[in-house]
Amino acid sequence: MSAPEFKSDMAVMLPRKTRSTQGDGFSLKPRHGLIILGLCLVSSSLVYATDGTARPSSLDTLVKWMPLLLQGFIFNIIISMCAMALGTVVGTALGLGQISLNPVVRKSTWFITQFFRNAPWLVLLFFAMFLLPFEFNLGFVTIPFPDWVKAIIGLSLPVMANVSEIVRGAIVSLPSGQWEAAESLAYTRRQTLWLIILPQCVKRMLPPWMNLYSILTMATVLASVVGVSEVMTLTGEALAAEGGRTDLLAPFYSFVLLLFFIYCYPIARWTVYLEKKFAVKT
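-> structure tokens emitted (282 positions)
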């Protein structure tokens, strides 16, 4: 039996339909990276064809140097992971210090956070590279301090500051009723923080933390300025070994762009997914 249909002559104001803006815009796809690489290879091939000199093609030269470039890119990933781990540990401690009840701790951690958060990454990298010693002499043993370790420390400084703000922002964003409810149950401040507040903050911190890691990975090429043998440094050395051929610039640097695109774009898409999943409903 169907439900009766009611009709009325009275004007009814229907709710306004809101147009969703998510998904309407242009979004990058993995195939776009392949198209860019293909266009660069085609253009370099045309330059090679019009050159008329007898030398290996751009594609053959790129394939020859590809293992070395991939090795350099893996080194970029290692630098980014180590810098992110170091920055996360120290930044979390700074973030907790920013909500401390001790005014000295709170103000000092706030100053450190703001100082490194508003400093250029390249300046911090130079700071770590040229002011830290090349080795530590403990009297009975000498510990070397290579450039890549200094690069990790230099890149971890801005990460530390941003993680500190992420932690502080996540804790502050929670309703004050969480603290009051825990206090009514005789929880200490430390128990409230570790058992109630921080577990809820993990979901809120995860998307910006992943976004920060993606930015850090792309910033690891700054280490090439100070001579660390990562993918950009090795690309320059490979081009120099080929005699500075101009037709190799596009395919080599396009290959480097494609490597970062393949690694960072899935992280960006996963970040967007987590932002939607853990979005705070008001």
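DSSP finds nine helices and two strands in the chain.
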